[in-house]
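re: ur question from yesterday

yeah so i grabbed the chain u mentioned. its 382 aa long if i counted rite. heres the sequnce exactly as i have it in my notes:
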Amino acid sequence: MTPRDPEESHRTAGSLELFFDLVFVVAVSVASANLHHLEAEEHIVAGVGAYLLVMFAVWWAWMNFTWFATSFDTDDWLYRVTTIIQMAGALVMAAGAAPAMLEGDFTVVILGYVVMRLAMVAQWLRAAKSAPELRSTALRYAVGITALQILWVLQLRLPESLGLISVLVLIVAEVSIPILAERRHSTPWHRHHITERYGLFTLILLGETILASTNAIIDAIAHSEQLPPLLLLSACGLILAAGMWWTYFWRPMHSQIADLRSTLIFGYGHYVIFAAAGAFSAGVEVAIDYDTHATELSGVVAAATTTVPVALFVLGIWALSLRRNLPTGANVGVVGLAVAIGLSALLPFTLVIAALLMITLVALLEVVKQRDRLMTTSIAPA
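ran it thru and got these structure tokens back, copy pasting raw so excuse formatting
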């Protein structure tokens, strides 16, 4: 298991990585479905809090595998088997998402998480044996992850009053491991490969929203009296999802990864993007419940479950990528439009207004892109 060449040409995501993503999306889908139920039953704060904790486990395990794979993917039988064990842990975690979010029992989620992380330890130990130049880095990862998994298991025995505090402390410790492990000898990462991996996972998460918009059409057929609002909801959901895709892929992101600091910002910042994408699909389902009178949420709160995740998604992309590629006026415009999308929940015809604001945001980005192309053409040598 020697390090991969970070300048390897034509490096793309492998079939095992794509298979791995599908299993993790199951966990995101289950978390999103339970968030929908909690929000529809008016447990907004508790639902969002539990969702964010489950999403941390999903995102962190996925991210650690993804960055390891960009450095050490050998695709031999042992690597594949170890990865499949991690996938098994993800399925266990998905099975525990409902009791975690609905009953506050995180036992199964933590056990599934520990399975995934200990499989990651086996990968790091193998890398330590095979790559002497990175042995200290790999061993720091292995020791740190192992110690924290012991603490996660012990955390299950703590009194309920210390539960949330202990979880937050362990989360801070988890996200500190790469910072400590990579500070002297950094593992090699392939910029194009890693940004492709993040982009593909974002696409799969946005696919959950497309499914939710399809459910609006299905419900419209079953509830003919609500046919117009549900069809309008489906159309607006598609526009918002398309705008989120357009915004994310407006510029290639590989230039955002240059050193350890920018790498950590890129990887950690995607937590907001992934969580917001999953919450958006839950919000569309809540909007369907509101139109079919299946929830007692107020119109403003029901709308906010859709518009706020969209706003956070756009602001997350702006912070990670867009702001470095936009002039000052366009930066102000993007941020203002994103905030306006979130606040559109306070207005009537919320999703229509949100969709129009998203169209305006995309148009603004395309105007900037066209201007950049014209400037590049005008200064090109004859």
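noticed a couple things. Residues 191-222 form the longest helix (32 residues). also The chain has two domains: 15-181, 191-379.
anyway ttyl
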